[in-house]
Amino acid sequence: MSRYFTEEHEWIDVEGEIATVGITDYAQEQLGDIVFVELPVEGATFDKGDDAAVVESVKAASDVYAPISGEVVEANAALEDEPALVNSDAEEDGWFFKLRVTDASELEGLMNEAAYKKFVAAL
Amino acid sequence: MSGNDDIATLAEELPLEALPLDAWHRARGARMVGFAGYHMPIQYEGIMAEHAWTREHAGLFDVSHMGQLSFSGDGVDDALEHLLPSDIKGLKPFRQRYSMLLDQEGGILDDLMVSRLGDDAFDGAAIYMVVNGATKYDDIGWMIEHLPDAVVMNHMADQALLALQGPEAGEALATLIPETADLLFMQSGPFTWRGVQLWISRSGYTGEDGFEISIPADDVTLLADALCALPQVKPIGLGARDSLRLEAGLPLYGHDLSPAVSTIAADLGFAIQKRRREEGGFIGHARVLKELADGPGAKRVGLKIEGRLPAREGATIHVGAAQVGEVTSGGFAPSVGAPIAMGWVSLPHSAVGTALEIEVRGKRIAAVVAPMPFVPHRYRRKV
């Protein structure tokens, strides 16, 4: 399994043709207490860069983009009851949705963990 | 990720000024954002935790960005009664009142606190006023234009302002300054702490008991340290200040109030005492008189929202196909445990209990007009 990162502070785990997407620990830390996550429905299709989810913190709503194109195969139902899971475990249990990847070449150019750490350190 | 107020856009375009406590906030781990022209702490440990701490104990807020003004000179009461719709002549020494600046059309230019000084506080000035930070320079310009030459207005830019808020604020402040225990809600007075002259009022912006403390900027770090050394007190950021005031039903200028909103539409008629309504003689009186007689077109109301999705500023409010209002402040209310909002709604739909719908990202969510405050006020009105 490989993990990729975007400049929009999302992480993507790719296993076969399925990509699991979430926001990074840095992102949840910046957003603060998360009170609601609006997730896409199963079967929704996205092009890379489309609005895919919305994360609401106490102070603001922020869009989460589809980091790659694909079809939603699952949304994380646990976030409906416990949106704070994104704060407590952003990069594991606080995942947002899983996509069936339509174009794996879009992963090229995304950052690996070391590059993302460097990117965040420079912010 | 992106949004109106997210990581990428929190940076401000204009050069921001530093508050007297800037280094103090940073040393306590505050996340600083641009607000009203200053670097200000939006949070320390997190908005929810800070909100809860203030409701249970005492929170210290740095509100030094706000404008502190004093007024003196012959005819100061008459001059201020021309500028403000509130009863200034009947304001006794050491008493404070909520008021606002109105434009010629009766639109709200700012909301403010006005008090009558005494005991030679602030160099013997007659009146002390605290106005919003984002509007202070516009307010000053407006007042210079409308005050007679005999009245001197002094912008006390070298005074810092702290707010200590919460059910334990009284006992906390009394350990440093025992005499403050005698103050009641909306009373104020001069106090001395370690030789420093303070002006303290029992008031605030959270719905809780608490104080606002004016202190020379040079001495404010010492006082902030002394207060936060007390077990009841933690520093609280702007984020929790906003969620606390929303739960308390208190409007925020620039969001719930603006020149497009009149006093009566904002449901702030209590700030205009009977004599002023009848006699008038203040800028904007015609609008107030007309809306008191005919009712305003729309009213500021509280909204309880079903479900967990917050409705934010700018979301439109509907009854069936018709738009009947707009949300002006909204978010998750930590002490309520649900999203709440404030907004304007056309008069026929503004009664408490009216079912409405709010559009959030193309979806309609159910809301109902709710009485404010959402969380009961706990002011100290008598001993």
From TrEMBL, chain A:
CDD domains: GCS_H
GO biological process entries: glycine decarboxylation via glycine cleavage system; protein lipoylation
Keyword entries, A-Z: Lipoyl
Cofactor binding note of this UniProt entry: Binds 1 lipoyl cofactor covalently.
Cofactor: (R)-lipoate
Keyword check for Hydrolase: no
UniProt cross-references to Pfam families, sorted A to Z: GCV_H
In-chain residues carrying the UniProt-annotated modification N6-lipoyllysine: 59
Entry GO terms, CC: cytosol; glycine cleavage complex
Keyword Magnesium annotated: no
Superkingdom as given in the UniProt entry: Bacteria
Domain Lipoyl-binding residue range list: 18-100
The family this protein is said to belong to: Belongs to the GcvH family.
Subunit-structure text: The glycine cleavage system is composed of four proteins: P, T, L and H.
Function: The glycine cleavage system catalyzes the degradation of glycine. The H protein shuttles the methylamine group of glycine from the P protein to the T protein.
NCBIfam families (alphabetical): gcvH (TIGR00527), PRK01202.1 (NF002270)
Identification of the protein by name: Glycine cleavage system H protein
Organism per entry: Sphingobium psychrophilum
Organism lineage: Bacteria, Pseudomonadati, Pseudomonadota, Alphaproteobacteria, Sphingomonadales
Gene: gcvH
TrEMBL record, chain B:
UniProt KW Transmembrane helix keyword: no
GO terms, molecular function: aminomethyltransferase activity; methyltransferase activity; transaminase activity
Residue ranges of every copy of the GCVT N-terminal domain listed in the record: 22-275
Binding site for substrate: 212
EC number annotated for this UniProt entry: 2.1.2.10
Gene3D superfamilies: Aminomethyltransferase beta-barrel domains, Aminomethyltransferase fragment, Probable tRNA modification gtpase trme, domain 1
Superkingdom, natural source: Bacteria
BP term (GO), one: methylation
Keyword tags: Aminotransferase, Methyltransferase, Transferase
InterPro entries: GcvT, GcvT/YgfZ/DmdA, GcvT/YgfZ_C, GcvT_C, GCVT_N, TrmE/GcvT-like
Catalytic activity: N(6)-[(R)-S(8)-aminomethyldihydrolipoyl]-L-lysyl-[protein] + (6S)-5,6,7,8-tetrahydrofolate = N(6)-[(R)-dihydrolipoyl]-L-lysyl-[protein] + (6R)-5,10-methylene-5,6,7,8-tetrahydrofolate + NH4(+)
GO cellular component: glycine cleavage complex
Enzyme class: transferase
A Pfam match: GCV_T
Domain Aminomethyltransferase C-terminal: 299-375
Family assignment from sequence similarity: Belongs to the GcvT family.
NCBIfam families: gcvT (TIGR00528), PRK00389.1 (NF001567), PRK13579.1 (NF010093)
Name listed for the protein in its UniProt record: aminomethyltransferase
Organism name: Sphingobium psychrophilum
Lineage: Bacteria, Pseudomonadati, Pseudomonadota, Alphaproteobacteria, Sphingomonadales
Gene that encodes it: gcvT
